[in-house]
Amino acid sequence: MKGSTRFVLAIGVFLVLVFILQMNMPRQFRWSKSFHHSDDQPFGCELFDRMLTASLPNGYEVSNRTFATLAADTLAHGRSYLVIADYLEDFDSLTITKMLYLVGHGSKVMLCAMDWNKPLTDSLELNTSYSWFSVSQFRQATDTVALCYRHPSADTLQVLSVPELLTCRLVDRPMTHITDSTMRTTEDGDTIVDYEWGRVYDEPRYQRDTLLTLESVVDKVSFDDEGLQEQTSVADNAVMVHYSIGQGDLYVCSLPLLFTNYGMLEGYDGFIFSSLHLLADRPVVRLESYMQTSAMWSNELSPTRHFLKFPPLKWALRLTMLAILLFMVFTARRRERVTPVYEAPRNRQLEFIQLIGTLYHQRHDNADLVRKKYRYFAEDIRRQTGIDITDDSDDEHTIRLLADKAGMEAAEVKAVILRSRMAGSYDGPLDDRSMRAAIDEMNRLLMRIQE
């Protein structure tokens, strides 16, 4: 088996082992709030919707319709509608009007959210003590609060322990009016009017009562036989409020995170069915068209979202992407290019030597030529024989070795070496005959050594 084949098999076995290990590892949950009917994560609603579909006696379904379209459909009147969201942002004046129209004509609506927009708080004269939900704090939190509710099959008050981070209190939203005004003069001599604003609790626009509260106000809340609070004012720690509007009912709950898969699996199913028992006397429809999560807000801030809102910009974006795709397809092909013809580099060493020779001839510096020749002569002898003739500390031994290499008399070699050293260190003027004689003498010794 080749080495490459063994390597491929090893990589394949490794990938299979990694896949098996990943399949057997504990599943990591995603704690983002989606409330979507196909999301099986803790704060999704897949299990929640399946349980309600199988449990509610008059039917349960999930729809993307809005209150505006439902109000125009007479067949949709008289049903129960459930809205679960983190923030009810899309409730504008038209939506609120159509919702109240449905409620007034006999429908039931339950709004479950932790925060609302201003039109909704103004219409219901109610607000939430909202605090931002943090997943990291929720996983480490140990603080709990007691949720008080009445089970439909029991006459006693039920108390359920709930993580405090999942709760959000409903409070009265008092109207603000000018209660007094005074005139005063500033240092510049200008006369201004100071207004005193006061928070006045007017009579509620709709009849309302508290259904669910937290433990801190249990002693202040009394329930009648139907599980409703007898007093009409809303307690500060209420988590579910009931409005009686026309022929229908409107319920506002501030615990949307319990109406999820997490609530079903963590023991809050009794509370969920007790709350939805208020809607279960007719078909229940959960509206997903008003869900607003942090992921949706991020999508709304995307520049692409602005292009997709307008048909001309949408087509411009599509044509741009198509043009880029076509450009990539047609320019990715291999292009045939003419191979340039390169000439073989010419050997210009002879021209360089001629140039150097011409320069020396023009300057007529024979002594410098002899000095350079001596350096090359000494280097050639050192490279061929390993003898350094520039070192005169032991001339007798050096000359004897060099004479053996060249096959010459030691006296003759000594005379050549001494004359070459003298010519290599001479700085005065040198005629042509002396220059040629010194160079020829060094060349003859090199020729003898090479033989």
According to DSSP, the number of beta strands is 15
Order of strands across the main sheet = 1-15-2-4-14-13-12-7-8
**Silhouette:** elongated
Strand % is: 15-25%
> What class would the helix/strand composition place it in?
alpha/beta
Number of domains: 3
Q: Largest beta sheet, briefly?
A: 9 strands, mixed
Unreliable parts:
216-233
Figure out the total of helices. Answer: 16
Question: Mean pLDDT, nearest integer?
Answer: 79
Q: Span from first to last CA?
A: 57 Å
Assembly type of the chains comes to single chain
Description:
This protein is an alpha/beta fold. The protein has 3 domains: 27-171 and 206-292, no CATH class; 303-328, no CATH class; 349-450, no CATH class. It is built from 16 helices and 15 strands. The chain has helices at 3-24, 46-55, 67-72, 93-104, 118-124, 135-140, 261-265, 269-276, 294-300, 303-309, 311-331, 349-363, 366-385, 395-406, 410-424, 432-450, and strands at residues 60-63, 80-84, 87-88, 108-112, 115-116, 126-129, 144-150, 157-163, 169-172, 175-185, 191-200, 207-214, 238-245, 248-253, 284-287. It has a 9-stranded mixed sheet, with helices on both faces. Strands 3-5 form a two-stranded parallel ribbon. Strand 13 and strand 14 (248-253) form a beta hairpin. Helix 10 crosses helix 11 (311-331) and helix 15 crosses helix 16 (432-450). The protein is elongated. The model is unreliable at 216-233 (pLDDT under 50).
